[in-house]
Structure formats: C-alpha cells, structure tokens
Write a structure and sequence with these properties.
InterPro entries: Cyt_P450, Cyt_P450_CS, Cyt_P450_E_grp-I, Cyt_P450_sf, Cytochrome_P450_monoxygenase. The chain crosses the membrane at residues 6-26, 38-63. Its cofactor is heme. Belongs to the cytochrome P450 family. With 565 residues, the chain is an alpha+beta fold. The chain has a domain at 3-131. It is 52% helix and 11% strand. The chain has helices spanning 3-29, 46-54, 56-62, 65-74, 78-84, 110-118, 127-133, 145-155, 164-185, 193-210, 231-240, 242-247, 250-253, 260-288, 297-303, 325-356, 358-374, 381-384, 389-401, 444-447, 463-468, 478-481, 500-517, 530-542, and strands spanning 35-38, 93-97, 103-107, 124-125, 189-190, 305-306, 320-321, 407-412, 416-420, 423-427, 431-436, 518-522, 544-546, 550-552, 560-564. The strands form five sheets. Strands 1-2-3-11-8-4 form a six-stranded mixed beta sheet, sandwiched between helices. The protein has a three-stranded antiparallel beta sheet with strand order 5-15-12. β2 and β3 form a beta hairpin. The longest helix has 32 residues, at 325-356. It is globular and about 85 Å long. 43% of the residues are buried. The chain binds protoporphyrin IX containing FE.
Length: 565
C-alpha cells in the first residue's frame, strides 16, 4: 500500500470516528428544545481559544455563516464581539454538538440563567474553573459542595456593612490623591486615568484585605534585582500571571534563562507564600495575646472559629480555627483576584464613557451638586451614599454594557429540566452550561430597541423627566430597566458575588469625589475638533477585549484633560 492510501484510510477512519461521536451526541441533544449547532471539533476549550483564536478573523471571512458563528462561540470572548457587532441575542440559547463527551449549552435567556444559577448544587462550578481558582490554596471561589457552603457562611459576612465606611473614606482619599497628582504634576492632561483607577482599586483591597494602607502614587513600587518584593507587588504579579502559573510550574518560570517578566511571576509565587505565612503568624500571635483585632479580611480569616458540632465527633462543641493555612492563602488570593480587575475596569469604563459622552457627565454632576447642598457633611458615608442614585445608575449601565465577567460555566452531571416563558427545555446529563452574564443584558425584547446603547437613565423610574429637571432620580428601578433577572453582572443565586456592596461603595465614592471637583474632557490633538476628540475616546473604549475580565486594549490612549469645575 502506498503512503497516500495509508493516509487516506487513516483519514476515513478518523472521519468515521468523529462522525459517529457527533451522531451519538446529536441524538442526545435532539429533543432538548434548544436550537442545535454542529461543529467538528471540541470548542470552548483553552486549546481552541489559543489555536482557533489565531485564525478567528480568517474563519469569519471564509467559512459559511452558520459554521463561522459556531467557530466564533468557541473562542473566548464572543459576547463582547457580539456587542460590538450589535448582534441580536438568540434566546433561550443553543447547544453545540461536537465529538467531545460533553454537550455545550450556551444560555442567553434570563429565566434559564437564573434557574441554573439558583441550583448551585445541581449545576456545579466546572472542574477547570475550580482548578484555576484553587491554584494558590483552597478557596471559597474555587470550592463546591459542603466545603463551599461552610466557607461561604463564614466569609460572606466579612464583606458586609462593617467594612463599608472604611471602603468609602479610603476610596475618597485615594481619588483625591490621584486627582491632585493629575492636576498638580501633570497639569490636568494625562493618559494615566485608567491605570490610576486600577491603582485605587488595588490600594483599597490592600487596606481592606491586609490593613496595609498605601498612599496613591502613579507607579508601582518594584523590588530591585535580588531584593524581596513587598506582599502587594508579589500579589499583583500573581494576578497578572494567573493563566501562566496555571500552565507552568513556578520553579520553571523563575529559572535564570527565562525572560525577566516570567522570572518575576515565578519569584512572586514563592514570596507571596512567605509573606502570607509571616502575616498569618503575626495575626495568630495577636490573637493569642488577646490584642484588639484589626478590621481586615486577613484578621477575620485568622480569627474565624468553627463554633459548631463537629460532624466526626458528634456531640462535642468545637472552638477551633475555621481555616487551614492553605485555605487562608487561597482566600487571600481569590479575594484580591475577584475584587480587583472587576471593580477597577468598571470605574475605568464609567469615567471613559462620561468623558466621551458629556451629557452623562452633566447628568451625574447635577446630582452631586444637589447632594452637596442637601447634606451637612459632604464626606459622610451614611448621608451621601443613599443620595447617589444617578451615580449608581451609571454603575449599573456600565456593568450592563461592559460586563466584566462575560459568562460563567456550570456543569450539569445529571439530566435537568428548566423553563422559559412557560416552555420546558431539557438539559441532558454531562452538559457544560455557559451562562452568559453579558448576553442576558443585551436583549432588545427586554431592554428595548436601544439595548446596545449606553443610556444610564434607563435605570430610573421616570427617566424622561430627569434630564430636563433638577430633580434627583429615584432609586434606580430594576423593574423599569428590564427586570432583576436580566441583570446579572454579579451573577445570581447562592454563589452570587459577596463583594457587590463593596464594589458599589467604592465606585460611588470614587465617582462622587472626582466629579465633585473636576470635569473630564478629551485631550485634543493638534487640529482636532471637540467632536473628533469625543469620537476618538469612544473608539478607544470600544477597542476592548475580554482577558479574564473585559479590558481596554489601549488604556493609555484614553488621554483626558481634567478641568477644575
Ligand atoms: C463590579 C465589581 C464586581 C463584579 C462585576 C463581580 C462579579 C462576580 C461574579 C460574576 C462572580 C461569580 C459568581 C458565580 O460563580 O456565580 C463573583 C464571585 C465572587 N466575587 Fe465578585 N465581583 C465584583 C467585585 C468583587 C469584590 C470587590 C469582591 C471582594 C473583594 C468580590 C469577591 C468575590 C468572591 C469572593 C466571589 C466568589 C463567591 C463564591 O464562589 O461563593 N467581588 N464576582
């Protein structure tokens, strides 16, 4: 037999094998009620994202439309590409049949998304997310079942109201220091706003998490050659290197023949552990000597006790530390990971949109000025925050149109039935459910014909009156805008984000502080008109890409002129 025949036979055999698997999966999916799409390769995998992503633009040009669409779905970040293309969402969702063992369900419908999120024990966090999130120690975010319930019960209260005043006042201070730098040192014109806001988000986590209050400054304090990194520097490298550390071991990354940037990530891994172990020891010493504990996430983790009947020693009441060292490290890491990019980018998109669309800036400034008139202490958390309804509407609209976490993945190991608009849909056993948090916020039947537009007034009960009058908006009305179930940037059900209030407090404090004193304008280039400058800003913002969260590709091109009001 010649070589050609060997290859041809192998190809026929492989093709028959793929076809039989696809046929089998097709039969599993046929009666589910969802639209089906067939694709010859496993999609929605890291490999497909890396390899397939490289050919995405060619694939979209040359493949027939329906196959190109399925290809697109398999490459991470399709939701944002859909938004830019203003593509109408297909409800309630679709199943992609591939040769893979599991079926791929994409959910774009609020009712089904909520049903899946509400049943977190039946639709568990997928194995890959668990591994990724537990890479630095067991954590709330990466656990399932009993281990999750126990951590959630203990950890969620650590992010409750008692930390909010600190979040509020620290955010005010950080925003104030950032603006002083922009105006005094950079003469008001800066391309550092996005990074400056990232710095604020990081510094807040440093204060709330570890009690390390850091004054805002434009750069990051970096350890020199051979010097030990500070804890927060090490942590930042680990967050930036999340995926890399998942793929390669830290000892390999820190080898001297590796590129310097990778060596830093490898080194940061070891230094993070050293620091957190030292910090934990200090907290435990303080606990033993009955010193007053600090109001930080680390202190709360170190001092948490399991005051409940131990399941192994029935009847005995225990008072033992609730978390092992590995769980504390894991939770310190995911606390920072979960709270950093999400909040930082939400603030960056909001400020960018205010600069690019000055009518929204006027709208929130009207509320801020009115608040200044009404409260006796304009820096008070308790009296100011409840009045910032338009600013909260701005945050909601930013999260709806620039959803930081585009989707979450849940596994369905056993067949389930879900309902949307009175119709039942079957989710077969062994289906991976991609629940699109972005997608549910983009339906025109729910959000109206301007679903793809940025319009913060949609969150108000009497939107039309607002722009014309001096009256302050009602509390943003979820019902008026599209219903709670179609707004899921913080996800939903028992696993919904426990940091939601903290993110809101930080966002409102920063926006309120900045726009109490300043306005943002585009820094015009030579010969550029204001209209051209505004469109340029809008284009910089739209040029975004979901990394772990949605980010601008060219943050330094968001060049703003900050003008004192
Ligand atoms: C605008 C800002 C934020 C957004 C959009 C956001 C969004 C999310 C989303 C979508 C999830 C996944 C929930 C799920 O698996 O169903 C999540 C989980 C989580 N978030 Fe946030 N988040 C934000 C801010 C924060 C902050 C400030 C913190 C705390 C510092 C935080 C801590 C967490 C934790 C610990 C989890 C895991 C919860 C669990 O698995 O039970 N997040 N967040």
């Amino acid at each position: 037999m010649d070589l050609f025949k060997i290859f041809a036979s192998a190809a026929v055999l492989y093709f028959s094998y793929l076809s039989s698997r696809i046929y089998r999966n097709y039969m599993r999916a046929k009666t589910t009620g969802f639209t089906l799409r067939i694709f010859p390769f496993a999609i929605n995998t890291p490999l497909f994202t890396v390899v397939g992503g490289g050919f995405l633009s060619i694939a979209l040009r040359i493949l027939p439309q329906s196959i190109a669409r399925t290809y697109d779905l398999g490459v991470y970040g399709y939701e944002y590409r859909d938004r830019v293309a203003k593509r109408e969402r297909e409800t309630p969702g679709y199943i992609v049949v591939t040769p893979n063992d599991s079926l791929e369900l994409f959910v774009e419908d609020g009712e089904i998304a909520n049903a899946i999120l509400a049943r977190s024990r039946e639709f568990e966090l997928d194995a890959m997310s668990r591994k990724l999130l537990n890479n630095f120690g067991d954590s709330l975010a990466g656990s399932v079942g009993e281990a999750w319930s126990r951590q959630r019960r203990l950890i969620a209260p650590m992010l409750n109201e008692r930390i909010m005043e600190t979040v509020w006042s620290e955010s005010q201070q950080q925003a104030h220091d950032m603006m002083s730098h922009f105006t005094a040192v950079e003469d008001g014109t800066t391309n550092g706003t996005v990074n400056g806001l990232r710095k604020i988000a990081f510094n807040i986590l440093s204060t709330i998490g570890y009690g390390m209050s850091t004054k805002w400054s434009p750069g990051l304090k970096q350890a020199g050659e051979g010097e030990k990194m500070e804890f927060m520097e090490a942590l930042l490298h680990l967050i930036e290197g999340l995926l890399l550390l998942f793929l390669l071991p830290p000892w390999l990354l820190r080898k001297s023949w590796m590129p310097k940037s990778l060596q830093k990530i490898g080194e940061a891994y070891y230094q993070f552990y050293e620091h957190s172990s030292e910090m934990l020891q200090k907290e435990r010493d303080a606990l033993e000597s009955s010193q007053t504990l600090r109001n930080t996430f680390l202190s709360s983790l170190a001092s948490a006790n399991d005051n409940e009947v131990d399941s192994y020693e029935k009847g005995s009441r225990l008072n033992k530390p609730a978390f092992t060292e590995s769980q504390i490290t894991g939770n310190l890491y995911t606390f920072t990971l979960a709270g950093y990019d999400t909040t930082a980018n939400t603030m960056a998109y909001a400020v960018g949109m205010l600069a690019a669309y000055p009518q929204w800036q006027d709208w929130i400034i009207e509320e801020i000025d009115q608040t200044h008139k009404e409260v006796s202490d304009p820096s008070s958390y308790h009296s100011v925050l409840p009045k910032l309804e338009r600013c909260l509407a701005l945050m909601f609209e930013t999260l709806r149109t620039f959803t930081p976490v585009a989707h979450i993945i849940r596994n369905c190991p056993i067949e389930k039935v879900v309902t949307s608009h009175g119709k039942d849909y079957r989710i077969p056993a062994n289906t991976r459910c991609t629940v699109s948090l972005d997608g549910v916020g983009a339906h025109s039947d729910v959000w109206g014909d301007d679903a793809f537009e940025f319009r913060p007034t949609r969150w108000s009960a009497n939107a039309n009156k607002l722009t014309a009058s001096n009256s302050i908006a009602q509390v943003p009305k979820l019902e008026a805008a599209g219903g709670k179930e179609n707004f899921l940037p913080w996800s939903g059900g028992p696993r919904a984000c426990p940091g939601m209030k903290m993110a809101q407090t930080e966002f409102l404090s920063v926006i309120y502080t900045i726009f109490s004193e300043f306005r943002a304008e585009p820094a015009l280039e030579a010969g550029e008109s204001l209209e051209q400058g505004l469109s340029r800003l809008a284009a910089v913002i739209a040029d975004s890409r979901p990394m772990v969260t949605l980010r601008m590709n060219r943050p330094n091109d968001l060049k703003l002129k900050w003008v004192r009001r």
